[in-house]
Amino acid sequence: MISPVQDWVRAIAALGPDAAVEVRKEAHCPDPSCPLRRTVIIWTDAAGTTHRTFLVKPLAYVRRPDVERALRIYSASR
């Protein structure tokens, strides 16, 4: 499941095929205010800047529209 998410991030963010994209599934967060299950997406753009966002759902339930929405919200907050 990680590979499709990486491919979606590359396509949505217009990254090259060799761009660094990492997807992590996290079962918990030490902060009690964190959601119980998160999927973290980390990528590096062409300028070498590292970006990070997350989805409040387990990796197994992540779909392309979720990734599109997360990257859109991330971009709008910058």
Could you provide a short overview of the structure?
This protein is α+β, with helices and mostly antiparallel strands. The chain has helices spanning 2-12, 64-76, and strands spanning 21-26, 38-44, 50-55. The chain has a three-stranded antiparallel beta sheet, with helices on one face.
Short key terms for the protein model shown above:
3 strands; alpha+beta; single chain; 78 residues; 2 helices; 31% helix; 24% strand; three-stranded antiparallel beta sheet; globular
Structure, described:
It is a single chain. Strands 1-2-3 form a three-stranded antiparallel β-sheet, covered by helices on one side. The chain is an alpha+beta fold and 78 residues long. The chain has helices at 2-12, 64-76; strands spanning 21-26, 38-44, 50-55. The relative contact order is 0.21. The mean pLDDT is 87. It contains two helices and three strands. The protein is globular.
SSE layout:
Blueprint: H1 2-12, E1 21-26, E2 38-44, E3 50-55, H2 64-76
Helix pairs in contact: 1-2
- Rounded to an integer in angstroms, the radius of gyration calculated over CA atoms is 12 Å
What profile does the largest beta sheet have?
Answer: 3 strands, antiparallel
Q: What low-confidence regions span 5 or more consecutive residues with pLDDT below 50?
A: none
What is the string of helix and strand elements?
A: HEEEH
Strand content: 15-25%
Mean pLDDT over the full residue set: 87
Q: How many E-type strands? A: 3
Tally of individual helices: 2
Strand order of the largest sheet: 1-2-3
Helix percentage range: 25-40%
Structural class by sheet pairing and helices: alpha+beta
Per the principal axes of the C-alpha atoms, what is the gross shape?
Answer: globular
- For the terminal residues, how far apart are their CA atoms? 28 Å
